[in-house]
Design brief:
Number of domains: 1
Number of helices: 6
Strand content: under 5%
Shape: globular
Low-confidence stretches: none
Mean pLDDT: 79
Radius of gyration: 19 Å
Distance between the termini: 53 Å
Order of helices and strands: HHHHHH
Length: 138
């Protein structure tokens, strides 16, 4: 017995998807945090990942927990911006220099989730001045 399928599209693109609110996207991003944390922990202990890239992530983590900041954390609206940008830059650098197979081996979530994580890290790396981008090439 054979089944034949019509050539119908899998995704119905005739009706646009509803716009997602900032709250919805924030909730989705928060759901990715456990997977991101596990990925980073696994990459840090994986001997196949460059030690130089691991050291950069460690240095940024020390900076984030340090009381000394470029922009003090108590400045409303931008106090944590330097921490976020530096973390994004370091994590983008770590993932860009790691083989795709290693990242996929350690990632527990969906590929769409990983793409979202990469785009957020890339955004942080893209807003860093070119001086730092040249020091830390992807």
């Amino acid at each position: 017995m054979s089944f034949e399928f019509e050539d119908t599209p899998i995704v119905d693109d005739t009706v646009p998807a509803p716009r997602r609110t900032w709250r919805d996207m924030s909730f989705e991003a928060a759901l990715l945090l456990p997977n991101v944390t596990k990925l980073l922990a696994r990459l840090i202990v994986d001997p196949r990942v460059s030690t130089r890239r691991k050291v950069l992530v460690g240095a940024v983590l020390v900076y984030i927990v340090s009381p000394v900041d470029l922009i003090p954390d108590f400045v409303i609206g931008v106090g944590h911006l330097d921490d976020i940008v530096l973390a994004s830059l370091a994590l983008d650098h770590l993932m860009a220099g790691t083989d795709e197979a290693i990242i996929l081996e350690h990632w527990d979530g969906s590929i769409d989730g990983l793409d979202l994580v990469r785009s957020v890290f890339a955004w942080g790396a893209d807003i860093v001045p070119a001086v730092f981008s040249r020091v830390l090439p992807r």
